[in-house]
Predict the structure of DUF308 domain-containing protein.
Amino acid sequence: MTDKIYRFSDDAPERSFQRMRKGMFWAGVVMIALGVAALAVPWVTSLVVSIFIGWLLAIAGSASMIGSMALRGTGLIGWQALAGLASFVAGLLLLIYPTQGLVALTALVALVLLLTGAAQGAFAFWMRPLPGWIWGLLSALVSIVLGIVILASLPEASAIVLGIFVGIDFLSTGLALVLIARSVA
């Protein structure tokens, strides 16, 4: 066990950044490739997201229902089984009707973009003494603006808009990571 205590100090961002620079660069390259792919086929991107989330919910719901058996005799089994059943049914509905579930998923992605933008903004301000921090801030602003635009266009936001905005977000995040990684020697 270590006794290290991590504190934010004036030199912490620079030391931490040097350790993560290479990984940041390659993560950025992957994000750029994913962004280009999402923009090339936004309808497919939206359907893939819908089906993937459907599978995740169905599997998580099944696991939760099975896990609820461990709560026999506690009075909680019914609640846990009900929660698992709700996740399972939501997942099945997304798998059976993936296009109809896209409005809910579009709203969810908008919220994720808002939260991602806030986290990116906090990271940008944390590394502010270093060159290139502005790229992180710009990426944060792109994520936040995309989230707001999606929420403002519901329910009319089509599945293609979701795919396009996810592609733009991946692309801006990837570019920011590459530019930040290359900005500090």
Notes: The chain has a mean pLDDT of 84. Residues 15-183 form one domain.
